[in-house]
Write a sequence for this structure.
């Protein structure tokens, strides 16, 4: 009975440890910098249900800043447009970084928001372009996010879509959020290319929308990669995986695929604001472009990764310890494999070139699911070649009645030992001191497995 209780307590301890570790993974975050771009154009003075648009937007944004102030790994800043110049005339450069990024600046942002007056026009593209310099340059990894709050579309000649795309491509920001306050539905499509557009058509919904955006910004989302075997079960594993930002091309995460203690692919926690190009480093590689994960939901992505093994071996391999072979797929070298190491490949046909002397080429080597394909290399022999003087010397092997070139010996060496596969060989040598082909020397010799031969020219 005591032993049973002990095992139960041990199991509970392990379960608690795993859950604690999983929770730690969820809460590990890079520094997040949130730039609020606030519309203070004259249209924000318009009535929206019980108050003006600017008052509702201001009050609810202040509430959200109150919540963000408690996040230790978050910095905020505030850029405003349309608040410095009255309209008319139209000032298409009316934007200012009112509160730059810094720790503990929530109080300054709140105070700035309280005294804003809506006066001017709506230069969204220009404000976005100026926001590029608002984020501080630092060596630490950070997630730069823009939350644009507006009630209108671009009023100047700028192109917000092009500016947003350029900022994302350069890796300056992640995909922006645009919160439209009482925005005419005819104008919504103009924001879809800028970022994720969220419509607020009721005053009471604005707070929910802000909370939704902040949750997407701060929370990572769970996902798993299933590497499927021949039965479409997720049993393939122990393969590196790389996750690249689809827009910038930069590496964002890299993991070794793992089957966890529950016998299923381990759970990863990724930034949901990024679309990913995923590379599974099987041989050859598997790839998926622009994979999206759903914020707040567990996402599963599957790759058909049916694999078998290739092993190159020799019954007596003392002379082949350093042997390698080229493994090719569609004439591309995908791996240089060592002898006696069973390497995994996706099922299919491959060409193998053993880097022996002479080289051994084997085409259409078949890799079958969950099997090991063996290639046995014949046991080589040794030859030691002595030259009487310095000079050019080439080695050939006789194959199907023809002389096939194997290698050239260093003309500056008088002695050379080679490891050769069994066969009939032929040496062609000429001293560097003579100038007539008639003085060419030739020697033939035979190599058998495990033999050692001396050739004197």
């Amino acid at each position: 009975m005591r032993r049973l209780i002990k095992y139960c307590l041990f199991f509970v301890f392990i379960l608690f440890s795993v859950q604690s570790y999983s929770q730690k993974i969820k809460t590990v975050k890079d520094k997040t910098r949130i730039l609020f771009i606030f519309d203070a154009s004259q249209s924000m003075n318009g009535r929206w249900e019980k108050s003006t648009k600017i008052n509702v937007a201001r009050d609810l944004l202040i509430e959200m800043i109150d919540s963000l102030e408690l996040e230790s790994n978050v910095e905020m800043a505030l850029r405003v447009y349309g608040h410095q110049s009255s309209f008319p005339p139209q000032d298409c450069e009316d934007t200012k970084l009112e509160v730059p990024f810094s720790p503990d600046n929530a109080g300054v942002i709140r105070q700035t928001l309280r005294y804003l007056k809506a006066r001017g026009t709506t230069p969204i593209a220009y404000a976005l372009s100026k926001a590029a310099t608002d984020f501080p340059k630092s060596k630490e990894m950070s997630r730069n996010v823009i939350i644009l709050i507006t009630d209108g579309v671009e009023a100047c000649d700028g192109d917000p879509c092009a500016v947003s795309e350029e900022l994302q491509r350069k890796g300056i920001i992640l995909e922006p959020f645009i919160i439209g306050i009482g925005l005419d539905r005819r104008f919504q499509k103009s924001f879809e290319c800028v970022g994720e557009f969220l419509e607020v058509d009721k005053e009471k919904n604005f707070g929910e929308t802000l909370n939704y955006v902040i949750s997407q910004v701060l929370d990572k989302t769970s996902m798993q990669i299933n590497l499927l075997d021949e039965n479409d079960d997720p049993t393939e594993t122990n393969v590196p995986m790389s996750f690249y930002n689809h827009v910038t091309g930069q590496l964002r995460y890299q993991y070794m695929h793992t089957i966890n203690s529950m016998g299923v692919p381990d759970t990863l926690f990724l930034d949901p604001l990024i679309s990913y190009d995923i590379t599974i480093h099987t041989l050859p590689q598997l790839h998926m472009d622009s994979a999206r994960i759903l914020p707040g939901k567990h996402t599963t992505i599957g790759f058909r990764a049916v694999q078998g093994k290739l092993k190159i071996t020799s019954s007596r391999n003392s002379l082949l310890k350093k042997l390698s072979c080229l493994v090719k797929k569609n004439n591309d070298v995908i791996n240089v494999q060592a002898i006696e190491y069973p390497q995994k490949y996706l099922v299919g046909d491959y060409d193998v070139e053993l880097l022996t002397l002479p080289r051994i080429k084997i085409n259409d080597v078949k890799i079958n699911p969950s099997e090991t394909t063996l290639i046995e290399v014949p046991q080589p022999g040794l030859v030691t070649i002595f030259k009487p003087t310095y000079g050019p010397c080439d080695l050939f092997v006789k194959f199907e009645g023809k002389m096939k070139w194997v290698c050239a010996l260093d003309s500056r060496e008088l002695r050379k030992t080679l490891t050769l596969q069994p066969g009939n060989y032929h040496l062609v040598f000429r001293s560097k001191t003579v100038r007539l082909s008639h003085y060419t020397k030739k020697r033939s010799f035979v190599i058998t497995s495990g033999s050692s031969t001396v050739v004197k020219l």
